[in-house]
Amino acid sequence: MQSQSREKNDPQELNNPIPYSISALILGLTLWAVSYIFWTSHTVEETNEIKQYAQTSNQAAVKSTASVEPIAKSLASPVAKKSVIKIDGKAIYSEKCSACHQSTGKGLPSVFPPLDASKWVTTINYELPVQIIAKGLMGKITVAGTDYNGVMPAFGQSLSNAELAALVTYIRGAWSNKSTEVSAEDVATSLVKHSEQLSSWTNEVQLVELVGAPK
Ligand code: HEC
After folding, report:
1. What residues are in contact with ligand 1 under a 6 Å CB criterion?
2. Which residue, 16, 21, 69, 181, has most beta carbons within 10 Å?
3. Where are the alpha helices (DSSP H) in 14-159?
4. Consecutive H or E run containing 129
5. From ligand 1's centre to the CA of 47, what distance in Å?
6. Which residue minimizes the CA distance to atom 30 of ligand 1?
7. What are the structural domain ranges in the chain?
8. Each residue of 124-165: pLDDT tens digit?
9. Is 1.10.760.10 the CATH classification of the domain at 83-211?
10. Of 55, 212, 67, whose CA–CA distance to 132 is shortest?
11. Pocket test for ligand 1, best of 88, 93, 101, 149 (most atoms within 8 A of CB)
12. Is 83 helix (H, G, I), strand (E, B) or coil?
């Protein structure tokens, strides 16, 4: 009897040997694992699809460039250059012009004429600003009702046609100015047309006679 009481009870199988919380966790993990496998294989498929698509569209792009290239070449190459080289006209202005004409474009009263709202700048006869900047100007010039009689230095030697174009385009669109762009080809055309004029324009009258009036 005594020995029997010292013995432990025979183990009894419980109704639910694994606690609910554990089985829920296992179920959760299994679901996660399955869905993870499913999800990654799906992604791999997608990646492959993207790769394939990229390859085909790349080929298409190569093909289309090949067919466009001869056309682009046959067109005046400046078209391509224009979009590739972006020159900052504002930076050129700050460096070379703002000391006299000021960053506001308003100049200095009676000394340096304004470029803001100046018909010499905004005129559809874009050759005027191109020629003044390229060769310089002295003698009398009337700007916005005020007469000036100073000396404007020449910049044709220190600026390329493309830089001149960017600069002229900038001053024609800066401040209150809202005039048209000028391209490097426009600059080249004007410089060739007036190549006989090597030194500075001597005054407003000579400038208007040869280059035309500001319209
Ligand atoms: C050293 C001072 C000085 C610098 C630098 C200078 N200019 Fe001028 N600019 C003048 C003067 C002075 C006149 C008027 C000339 C005259 O009286 O004949 C003038 C006239 C002009 C005119 C025609 C008149 C007007 O006001 O519209 C334009 C356009 C012009 N300059 C643009 C420029 C640009 C762009 C630059 C920079 C590349 C520049 N200038 C740099 C002094 C300068």
Report:
1. 96-97, 99-101, 112-115, 118, 120-121, 129, 132-133, 137-139, 141, 143, 148-153, 155, 167, 171
2. 181
3. 20-74, 78-84, 89-96, 98-101, 119-122, 127-135
4. helix 127-135
5. 61
6. 133
7. 19-55, 83-211
8. 999 999 999 999 999 999 999 999 999 999 999 999 999 999
9. yes
10. 212
11. 101
12. helix
Count the neighbouring beta carbons within 10 Å of the beta carbon of residue 96. Answer: 17
Q: Kindly calculate the radius of gyration of the chain based on its CA atoms and give it in whole angstroms.
A: 39
Which secondary structure element, helix H or strand E, spans residue 141, and what is its range?
Answer: strand 141-143
Locus of tokens 């044709």? 156
DSSP string, 151-183: EE---TTTS-HHHHHHHHHHHHHSTT-------
**pLDDT (mean) for 25-36:** 74
d(CA 123, CA 126): 6
Q: How many C-beta atoms surround the C-beta of residue 4 within 10 A?
A: 6
By most ligand atoms within 8 Å of CB, the mutation choice from 125, 147, 152 for ligand 1 is 152
Which atom of ligand 1 lies at the shortest distance from residue 148's CA?
17
